[in-house]
From TrEMBL:
Alphabetical list of PANTHER family matching this protein: BIOTIN BIOSYNTHESIS CYTOCHROME P450, P450, PUTATIVE (EUROFUNG)-RELATED
PROSITE patterns: CYTOCHROME_P450
Protein name, UniProt field: Cytochrome P450
Pfam families from the UniProt entry: p450
InterPro entries according to UniProt: Cyt_P450 (IPR001128), Cyt_P450_B (IPR002397), Cyt_P450_CS (IPR017972), Cyt_P450_sf (IPR036396)
UniProt-listed Gene3D superfamilies: Cytochrome P450
Keyword Lyase: no
Coiled-coil spans in chain: none
Species name: Kitasatospora cinereorecta
Similarity-based family: Belongs to the cytochrome P450 family.
UniProt keyword Transmembrane present: no
Length: 434
């Protein structure tokens, strides 16, 4: 029986994800129509959109991601929701994430130095040390919100890469929450950084924070627009006046970027560099604790940590979907797609494709091979993927081996988002003094 369009539209609605990724619906869609039209009904104050093609099979997702000449990141940017104005779209197009080769390749080369094997080697020791300290400090308490515990690691790592002073790290959290969690009332207006504890440039930047996120006609301001992030960009420019030598900010300053490219590249580091680990690690631990036999296996065989991280990424992808725009009339999965149509690839669906993964709904920390697409594919494969893996392995190993009898201590609270697959809270408890 053909799926009702209203049921299909659930994969777009942010509220769906408050209860979890709709894997059963995605499975039904893969079986019935792996490239399926999805409507964009209005959500709260957000207006309706024109609709898009959802791409659900692993092979088709990979094809879309590796053919930017057919499915462009640049034409309409990479979020399902269209930018509000032509000016917003022009600004979004200056971001590396929203470009196609060769412009994308140029920007990627400028910042890639932060992720060389040598740079990762230097960071790895600091990451291991901080993971050790985080777990040692938490151990005596016997309980924690793992989302808060885990969030400190990527923020600290990101701050070091970018040269952000310790006092200003909480600004990175606020900016990420506002951009990624704009569909969630708890995150949309994040203001957790205390100005009294910020540096001078941090306090000056906060003064540029928008006082309202609503336009005069009552519509929400796009959280990724230049106006919505005036405080972040003010901070970026001030910090770049004297960047730490060797930091990615120094590379950006010296790389010949335009003002807009500089701002959007800072945006990309400040948000994506934070959220990937902050979503994947709590989600991965929640999954692990929900599979006690796999938790026991990992405790007995910590050498499986690397493959456990890959399975966590497959089973709990930090990003649900990404958008492209058809650059010409084409066909995908037997479906005709017209130039200008939105095309949205669902990483969450591709990672459960039964034609690629044996028993895809099973969580198996020893799974191999594991061809998940949680870091993307093709020219936009995540530049920080290896750094994210280093962080996840370091903290997971410490948590599993040094917090005995680890268990949930209440219900997790999910992020309301049709883009990010995250938790806002994950209460955990362990045995003290063991």
């Amino acid at each position: 029986m053909t799926l009702d369009q209203a049921r299909v539209n659930r994969i777009f609605l942010p509220g769906t994800y408050a209860d979890g990724v709709p894997y059963e619906l995605l499975r039904e869609l893969r079986a019935e129509a792996p490239v399926r039209w999805v409507e964009e009904p209005p959500v709260g104050n957000w207006p309706a959109g024109p609709g898009y093609w959802a791409v659900l099979r692993h092979a088709d997702v990979k094809y879309v991601l590796r053919t930017p000449d057919v499915f462009s990141s640049h034409l309409g940017a990479t979020q399902i929701r269209d930018p509000d104005t032509a000016a917003d779209l022009d600004f979004a197009r200056t971001m590396m994430l929203n470009q196609d080769p060769p412009d994308h390749s140029r920007l990627r080369r400028i910042v890639a130095g932060a992720f060389t094997p040598r740079a990762l080697g230097e960071l790895s020791a600091a990451i291991e040390d901080h993971a050790r300290t985080l777990v040692a400090d938490a151990r005596k308490d016997g309980a924690a919100d793992f989302v808060q515990l885990a969030a400190d690691l990527p923020v600290r790592t990101l701050a070091w890469i970018m040269g952000v002073p310790e006092q200003d790290r909480q600004l990175l959290v606020d900016w990420a929450n506002r951009v990624i969690g704009y569909q969630d009332a708890d995150y949309a207006h994040a203001r957790s950084a205390d100005p009294a504890h910020l540096t001078d440039i941090g306090r000056a930047a906060v003064a540029h924070r928008p006082t309202t996120m609503t336009t005069p006609d009552g519509r929400p301001v796009n959280p990724r627009s230049r106006a919505a992030l005036a405080d972040m960009f003010a901070y970026a420019h001030a910090l770049a006046e004297a960047p730490r030598p060797g930091s990615v900010l120094a590379r950006m300053r010296d790389g010949g970027l335009s003002t807009e490219e500089f701002e959007t590249t800072f945006f990309l580091f400040a948000v994506a560099g934070n959220e990937t680990v902050r979503n994947a690690l709590p989600g991965g631990l929640y999954t692990l604790l929900g599979h006690p036999e796999q938790y026991r296996l990992l405790r007995e065989r910590p050498e499986l940590t690397a493959s456990a991280v890959e399975e966590m990424l497959r089973y709990w992808p930090p990003v649900v979907d990404f958008r492209r725009t058809a650059a010409r009339d084409t066909e995908l999965g037997g479906t005709a797609i017209r130039r200008g149509d939105k095309v949205v690839v669902y990483h969450a669906s591709a990672n459960r494709d039964e034609t690629v993964f044996a028993d895809p709904d099973a969580f198996d920390i020893a799974r191999t091979p594991n061809d998940h697409v949680s870091f993307g594919y093709g020219p936009h494969f995540c530049l920080g993927a290896q750094l994210a893996r280093v962080q996840m392995r370091a903290l997971l190993r410490r948590v599993v081996t040094e917090l005995p009898e680890l268990r949930l201590d209440g219900a997790p609270v999910r992020l309301v988002s049709n883009f990010q697959n995250g938790l806002k809270h994950l209460p955990i408890r362990w045995a003290r003094g063991v």
